[in-house]
Amino acid sequence: MTQHGFGSLHRSTVAAKGAECALWLAIAAAFTAGSFAFDDTLTSYRWGPAAWPRAIALLVAGAAVLQFALALVNLRPAMPRWRLRRPRPVRLETVLRAGAIVLVPLAFAAAIGPVGFFVAMPLFVAGFLFTAGESRPRVVALATFAISLTVAVVFTSLLYVPLPLGTLSPFDAVNGAIVSLLS
């Protein structure tokens, strides 16, 4: 059985999954290390402002280890050479979509300062849904409204996190009005 490669695991797959896990663990460690720069005690919040970055870092680290463990459990034996298929060429549409999926969050991060969170968030959600392949306008509109409203309510009314209101003239007024409605 091992003469055809069935008994050996893909070492490159294990190495790739291990490298990905290590990258995510390094990101989580960087988040945790960065949180010590603002680790102050607050009278209004007993865990302090560093609790959320540390919780996110813990979730990222846990997800990375879990994903690596699941990849090892689901790893298949190596295919024999006679069963290997020729890889399909990558289509331009796939490359453009992958690039757009990276650029949409970067555009959101760049826009959040000038136009504010409450204007940028619905644009980000709609743009990301379209980029991810959802083309039905009604679904995009309902999902955008629901996600944006949920995030806004959670951050402003439940967690009392101040979100950027924007620096450009019409947007700061719109963001201020939304904050007034949610408060």
Automatic annotation (TrEMBL):
<feature type="transmembrane region" description="Helical">
    <location>
        <begin position="21"/>
        <end position="38"/>
    </location>
</feature>
<keyword id="KW-1133">Transmembrane helix</keyword>
<protein>
    <recommendedName>
        <fullName>DUF1468 domain-containing protein</fullName>
    </recommendedName>
</protein>
<feature type="transmembrane region" description="Helical">
    <location>
        <begin position="94"/>
        <end position="111"/>
    </location>
</feature>
<feature type="domain" description="DUF1468">
    <location>
        <begin position="22"/>
        <end position="164"/>
    </location>
</feature>
<feature type="transmembrane region" description="Helical">
    <location>
        <begin position="140"/>
        <end position="161"/>
    </location>
</feature>
<keyword id="KW-0472">Membrane</keyword>
<feature type="transmembrane region" description="Helical">
    <location>
        <begin position="50"/>
        <end position="73"/>
    </location>
</feature>
<keyword id="KW-0812">Transmembrane</keyword>
<dbReference type="Pfam" id="PF07331">
    <property type="entry name" value="TctB"/>
</dbReference>
<feature type="transmembrane region" description="Helical">
    <location>
        <begin position="117"/>
        <end position="133"/>
    </location>
</feature>
<dbReference type="InterPro" id="IPR009936">
    <property type="entry name" value="DUF1468"/>
</dbReference>
